[in-house]
Amino acid sequence: MLSAVSIVGACALATATLAEDIPTRSTAVTVDSAKQAGGEHAGHARRIPNGVVSLDVVADGGRLHLLLGKHQDGRASVWHQVSTDAGRNWSDAIEVQGPPGAGAVFMRGSDARIVARGMNLVAIWTSKVEGNKHGGAGPMVASRSTNGGKSWTPAPAPADWPKGPHSFFTLGADAKTLHAAWLDSRDGKVPIEGAQAMRYAFSLDSGVTWSANSTLDGVTCACCWNAGGADKAGNFYVLYRDKRPSDMALGVVDAKTKQWTRLATVGAFGWDFPGCPHIGGGLAIKSNGGSTEMHAVVGTRRKGDAGFYYVKSADGGRSWTTPFKLGDESAAHGDVALSKDGRLAAVWDMIDAETNDGSLAIYEAQSNDGGLHWTAARRLSAPKASASHPRLVASNNGFVAFWTEQSEGADARLAITRIYNEKLGQAGR
Question: I need a labelling partner for 53 at 20 to 30 A (CA). Which of 68, 81, 135, 247 fits?
Answer without folding.
Answer: 247
